[in-house]
Structures are given as structure tokens and as C-alpha cells.
Amino acid sequence: MLKHLSGKLWNKGVWANGSDQFRPCLYVPTSGFHNGKAHLAPRSFFGVEDFLDDDNSRPYTYQKEKKSKNPNKHISFKQRTGAYMEPFTLDVLISKRFVSASLTHRVTSKQVAVAGTNSKDIKAVLKSRSDIPACLAIGRILSERAREADVYTASYTPRDRDKFEGKIRAVVQSLIDNGIDVKVYLD
After folding, report:
1. Quick one: which of 86, 91, 181, 187 has the fewest CB in 10 Å?
2. What is the DSSP letter of 76?
3. Rounded to two decimals, what is the model's pTM?
4. 153-156 sheet: strands from edge to edge
């Protein structure tokens, strides 16, 4: 039916709106309609493909997943289960002005407990907001808040630019001393 209609349009052409000019049809099918692939599929205004993916596998999807460079790459058991076996990670940020630390759930990406020297209640008590006693206080407060949220273990991997010494070590050691079991992974 569609092939028949497009054939008529191609042979007869299209009359322009409001004028007596005859214009030939601009749509030219490049192959048959029933070969299983959509040619000249329309794209939406924002550039999101809303008809078919490149490999025609998932129709009507709105987000493309990133394809692996090596689809046959083996993912180890530790990589697959690490986020579930050790679900909480410690994140420590130390700047020139303040110290902050948080415990984050790896699967849901929700912060369970947060402490920082920039908050009003801690700011008033401390002399300096970025020295070793401030780091020890942050570790103690974070451990109290973590125990309230029923978190007793965490894992910590320092960032590439951070060394596990000084203020960062003071925060982690304070957490360990106050009852939170922290596993530190150093490369």
C-alpha cells in the first residue's frame, strides 16, 4: 500500500500550496520497505534517536549505553561484587581552609554521613579549621554520625594526587579509633 502510494506521488508530483506550480516529490526510497531496517529514520529536534539504535536491536530507546571497546573482556568476580561486599566508601577532602569527610553508599550513591569544619556547629568550637586537631574532630564526628546510620565498615582509596599521610591519615585513624572499621587500599 505504502509502496503504491509513494509510486503515485513520484509519478504525479506534488502541487505547491496556494500556487499553480508543480514540484516533483523529493523523497526517494533507496531500497525496499520490508527488508527489516529503517532507512532515513527521523531524528528528533534535540538529536536524540527516538526510533532505532544503530544496530536495530532496541527500538524506541532514548539513551544509548556506552559500548565496551573490548566486548569479550573478562570482568573479575571482585570487580562485579566489590560494590556489594564493601558498600560504603570514605571520601576525604582537605583544602587550605577546611576539612570535610563523607561516607557514601557505592550502589545508590547516597551520602550516609557527612562532617566538615565548614558547618556552623563545628566551626564555632575549633581554633583552626584545617589543622590536625580539626581532622581528628572530623573523624570523631563522622564516626558518631555513621554509627547512628548503622554503618560500621567502610573502604578508602586515596585519590591519585593524595598521599596517605598527615591530615588524611589523621581523619582515617580517628575513624578507626572511634569504632568504624576502615579498609585502606593503597596502590
Report:
1. 187
2. P
3. 0.58
4. 111-116, 99-105, 88-94, 153-156, 181-184
